[in-house]
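Feature request, filed as a ticket because there's no other form

It would be nice if the structure record came with a short human-readable summary line next to the C-alpha cells. Right now we just get the raw output. Example of a typical job, pasted below so the devs can see what we mean:
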Amino acid sequence: MSTGERRGPVRVAMLGCGTVGSEVVRLLDAQAGDLAARVGAPVELVGVAVRRPQRHADLGDLVTTDAPGLVTRPDVDVVVEVIGGLEPARALLLQALKAGKSVVTANKALLAEDGAALAEAADAAGVDLYYEASVAGAIPLLRPLRESLAGDRITRVAGIVNGTTNFILTAMASSGAGYGDALEEATRLGYAEADPSADVDGYDAASKAAILASLAFHTRVTAADVYCEGIRAVTAADIGAAADLDCVIKLLAICERTPGDDAYPESVSARVYPAMIPRAHPLAGVDGAFNAVFVEAEAAGQLMLYGQGAGGAPTASAVLGDLVAVARNRVAGGRGPRESAYAALPVRPIGAVPTRYHASLHVADRAGVLSAIAGEFAHHGVSIAAVRQTVGGPDGQGARLVVVTHSAPEAALAATVEALAGLDVVIGVDSVLRVEDLGRPSPGVAG
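Raw output as currently delivered:
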C-alpha cells in the first residue's frame, strides 16, 4: 500500500520515554481528538522502546525493549526518537528510514554529526525527516529557515541557544557571583546536569549551530566545522568589565555567509563562544534559561525568535508539531521539504573570521608601556578602537590596561595577544573576550 492510499490511523513508534518522551505520550492522549482533526486521521501510539520497562508500567503493552523490531514493524508509519546520543539512535533511525518509516527526532548531536546520512536515507526511501525539536525547544526556528525563508537569502543566524549557560551568565551578572557559584545554583535548580560539560563547554550550542548553518546556507555543516569555546573561563571581573562598556556577556552561536575576497571564496562560518554584546541589543535582555535567535536575510531583514529553549513540555511541543506535519504528509501521500545542500559552500576557518577583542592586561606602571603595546597591535595589523587605564592590577601593583580593537581577522588578534604576553612590560593577560555588534549588517548584505 502506498502512502497515498492510507485511510486508517497514522501509527507511531517512539524510541525513549524520559522527560520529553513521557510528555509526548501525555499530549498524544490528551489531544487525541484535536490531532486527528488536524491530521485528517487518528494518530495512534503503537509502541515505546525503552531500556528499563519496569519504570513505565503505566504504558502497559506498548512497552518493549526490542527497539530494532519496533522501528521495522510493518504497521508503523512514523518513528519518533527522543533517546539522544549517537548510538544506538543512528542505527535505529537508519533502519527505520530504510524500512520506509518517516522520522521525527530531537537528536541535535546525531544531526550535527551525521545528518547527511539520515537525509540521504530519507530521500532514498521517499519519506520525511523532521527535527524542529533539535534546536531551541519550543521556538519555531528550523521550519522558518527551510520553508518560510526558502525564497530569501539568509546571511546570518545568531543568538542564544543554550539555556544552561544563559542562566549561569545571567546569575553572574545579577548577583556578582563567580562562575562556580552560579553553576552550583544552576545545578541545584535543575538547569544544569550533574555533568554540565556539554553545556558549559559549548558543545551543545555547537551542535545546534551546525544544524542552523546547514539549513540557512544550503550547505552541509557538521559539529566538527564549528569553532567552539565555552564559559568556564568567564569571571566576575569579565562581567564587570562588560558592564563598564554598557555590555553583557552571552554565549553566542553565530553562523554567517561571507562573500568571497582575495583570500577566500564565498564561504560560511559557524562559531560558538562567550562574547560581549551591547546592552541595547535585544539579545542582551534574554535572561535565565530562555533562548533567542536573530535571523538576518536580504529581503526580510532582521527577525527575532524568542522562547523556552528546553524542558519536557516545550520540546514535546516541537516534537508534536513535527509529528502532525509528517502525519499529514502520510495521509495526503506527499512529502515535506528534502535536504537542501546545493550551495556546498566551504567553511571558513576561524582564523579568517573577522571579530573584535576586549583584552584586559596587567602591565607595569611606567613610561613607554602604552607605546610598546600599541606597537604590537600595529605590527599585526590590528587597529585599536579604545584604551582605558586604571592604577593597580589584580595584586595591587602596576596598572590595568583595557584595549578594545576594531574588527580584524581572528588569527591576527590571537597572534597579537600571544605577542603581548611575551612583552616584559606585560605582567599578565588577565582576560580576552570577543565583542560582537550584532546590529551591524552581516558580511553577506550589500550596501
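Something like this underneath would help us a lot:
The chain has three domains: 3-137+313-332, 142-309, 354-435.
DSSP finds 14 helices and 17 strands in the chain.
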